[in-house]
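Allow me, if you will, to draw on your knowledge of protein folds for a short while. I have a record of one protein: its chain in single-letter code and its fold written as discrete structure tokens. Could you please explain, in whatever detail you think fit, how the structure tokens follow from the sequence? The record follows directly beneath this note:
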Amino acid sequence: MAQPRCVPYDVRVNATIHAEAVREARSRVVVFPELSLTGYELEASMVDPETSALEPLVRACGETGSIALAGAPVAGLRDQAFIAMLVVSPTGVRVLYRKQWLGEEECVRFCPGDEPTVLEVDGWRMGVGICKDTGVREHVERMAELEIHAYCAGLVHLPEEVDEQEERAVSIARRCRAFVAFASFAGPTGGGYTRTAGSSAIWSCTGDALARTGTVAGELSRATLHSR
């Protein structure tokens, strides 16, 4: 779980920062926070998955054999816009998931997105979500039905919401009987977030914390997961 320093609106610089985190992580899967490539700037321009600005991140994944899950606003049909999770691999970038459950301010610009999504990596079924999704019972129940091995989400929370962040993770782990990994922004990230919670972490299937960062931007939380 990575909680990188963020430069608001600057996808190219943020992709380079993401690439550095991927190299440092030395992990098969590296997860980043919600809207990590733009900052939580709800007016940021849409990110084209094929933009050259993401090439540093693609190269880093190629060098390390990693898959990165990064947050970005993306365009849809008929002028629609979505808060998305991109999957970045050595072969390129594609939209993996579009946030289904939106906050009140997000609804002004963005549309609700996909049904629950599963990413398969090396035989692991990984459910994914974005911030508010993690607190919606319907979303969690659908994830449980999909028999996932792990659940990964990118978040933006205030420092005073860190207890809620923890409670959601433990609840998902126990309901889905799956590992849970939350990448939560640290430091300022736009959209009125002058402070964010950080505390990115990985939990066991029983809700025990296996690894956790602090609240400083640039920290990583890392764990090796073993199949049940």
